[in-house]
Amino acid sequence: MIELVVLLIKLFLVFNVIMGLASICTWIERKGSALIQDRIGANRAGAEIPVPQFSAVGLPIWGFIAKPAVAVINLTLRLAFIPLKVLGVLGVINTLVCDAVKAITKEDFVPEGTNKIVHALAPFMAVFPVFLAFAVIPLAPDFTVFDYKIRPVVAEVDAGVLFFLAMGSIAVYGVVFAGWCGNNKFALLGGLRATAQMISYELAMGLSIVAAVVTYGTFDLYEIVEKQNPVWGVFTQPLTALILFIVGMAETKRGPFDLPESESELVAGYFTEYSGMKFLVFWLGEFAEIGLFALIISIMFFGGWHFPGLDSIFEKGTWMAALLGHAILMGKVIFFSVLQIVLRWTLPRFRFDQLMNLGWKILLPISMVNLVIYSTLKLSGF
Amino acid sequence: MTTSLIVFAVCAALAIVSAIGVVASRNPVYSALFLLGNLLTMAVMFAALNAHFLAVAQIIVYAGAIMVLFLFVIMLLNVKTEERASPLLVVIGGLAAVSFGAALLKSYAAIAHVALPAGAVTGSNNGTVKALGLDLFTNYVFPFEVASLLIIAAIVGAVMLSQKLRPHGPDKTLAAQVVKPQEQGVK
Amino acid sequence: MPLPTQDIPIEMLYVGLSAILFSIGAFGFILRRSSILAFMCVELMLNAANLALVGFSQRAQNLDGQIAVFFVMVVAAAEAAVGLAIIISVFRATRSIETSESALLRW
């Protein structure tokens, strides 16, 4: 019984983590891209809200009580509205509130001649593997509360890394369906390109993950973090981390690999025919996937919740250590998300044949050689 | 009703419904979607039967690669809905399938209560990656290597079959496509 | 058929389910005239066989069944790739995927 309650709490918290990551990544994308492109970006919504002021005209109160009371109330209102205005100037209200309201209230049209069921199914298939993959990722070290040991993973699966690979394979379906049921050539081209790209880079991802697993000796993501206690994974296998980072950017169709979206070429690529809430769901899935890959890279190669100085502040196994570990992990996740976003707005995009070239002729042989090297090292007792 | 029975009941219902959907739906994309549901249900059943690696491999290989290939071909070839089969074929096919299924079920029912033979190899049936890998790479190394040869043959075959026949090489070289001869330029 | 509460072990229930799925797949294969849909019913039959193998492997507490499933998956993947390439070639030649169109060599 208590396990059910703990599971429900874990589900709720992980769902909040996903939505929080997606929202923060969206905001960083909007404001960060503005700063990179030397413009100000969104800073109007919520910044010039007229602060409601209270006036005691017409109230039957004596003047010498009313005047200072009204002054105090007005000052409090102004102070209370300052955080809102700061958020508005930073563009948070624009991105998180206004865009969401706009997307929800837009008309949701389905193009003529397509399959309505598949059209509605595509955003769901694009998003649900990303959300499911968060289920096997540990978000904090173990801790004990009231003699009850809690591991902050929603599903304690032995083969966590394999499950993550499986979810990467299923994420192709959202793109296939979205591209096909747009019923026009732009969407179809975008969908085909995106599918080919994702499938080609899955090979390099699988091989590099296998190289990492061979070195760590386990599929369990929690054990992988625990094995990185003194030395992070990126120092023992730098090439694997680099390959996984590049492949991660290709899998999320971000960065220099965003030919499927191609905002300047293909209208909007494979989600041309989506508007309103369905478009928002695609967008949410994409930004949640940025957070997912940042999380995977921090957990598998960058130590997870270990940081060389801060490990021994709190005693291991208490909830304060778990909270600190979670904060360290989220710091690394934010770092990698910002890195992905900055890379997207800095590098020009690949041409399609360059992309396929990179995936098949460069990354695949390198990851195979990498696997052979690390298998040899492991067999010789490294 | 134990948990495993409930899991079996739910998975069996989903598997049978999606299998009937594959067979009976008019639109080929719906058939592919039903088959995808069937494959995912199979993965759940594998996990319930203690074959964890096979469950994940089913999702990665079948649901993630083979079904994408099917959907590609259906969408590219623009397969239309087909007409209803003739009732005679339905009856004959139904009889054949039902009789075959009944024969299978009867033979399974006959061995359902048979105890394991005395000399049965009872290794641990933990279908984890480690146990499966140990068995695969020690006892079954030769079929494993032959399987890799089979995959190479399939790759070569698929690439060869899907090439367009160009008896005289590419139509124009890149230079010929891009550079305009001077006679056609501005006078 | 006695109710499967404590008589029949649960792995045999899965094997029985695989027999039902196999017969549904066979029915679909006989019925369908488009080669892609026939191919999908073949995949259904292969999956039913996989389920039977895993069920028996669990019953006998032996890992041989799961290894057989591994190889069946490999063969099914290779067959799917080559089979779909063949279907595409036939489509290019005859612009149709009905199985009755490729009857040139029939008497």
Describe the protein in words.
- The model of chain A has no long low-confidence stretch (mean pLDDT 85).
- Chain A has helices at 2-36, 63-90, 92-105, 116-133, 160-170, 172-180, 185-216, 221-226, 233-236, 238-251, 277-301, 319-346, 352-379; strands at 143-145, 148-150.
- Chain A is an all-alpha fold and 382 residues long.
- In chain A, strands 1-2 form a two-stranded antiparallel ribbon.
- Chain A contains 13 helices and two strands.
- In chain A, helix 4 (116-133) runs antiparallel to helix 5, helix 5 packs antiparallel against helix 7 (185-216) and helix 11 packs across helix 12 (319-346).
- Chain A is globular and about 90 Å long.
- With 187 residues, chain B is mainly alpha-helical.
- Among the domains of chain B are: 10-82, NADH-ubiquinone/plastoquinone oxidoreductase chain 6, subunit NuoJ (Four Helix Bundle (Hemerythrin (Met), subunit A)), CATH 1.20.120; 126-163.
- In chain B, 69% of the residues lie in helices and 0% in strands.
- In chain B, helix 1 (3-24) packs antiparallel against helix 2 and helix 2 runs antiparallel to helix 3 (52-77).
- Chain C has a domain at 33-97: Helix Hairpins, CATH 1.10.287.3510.
- Helix content of chain C is 74%, strand content 0%.
- Chain C contains three helices and no strands.
- Chain C has helices at residues 10-31, 35-60, 64-94.
- In chain C, helix 2 (35-60) packs antiparallel against helix 3 (64-94).
- The radius of gyration of chain C is 18 Å and the shape is elongated.
- The model of chain C has no long low-confidence stretch (mean pLDDT 85).
- Chains in contact: A-B, B-C.
- Chains B and C meet through helix 1, helix 2, helix 3, helix 4 and helix 5 of B and helix 1, helix 2 and helix 3 of C.
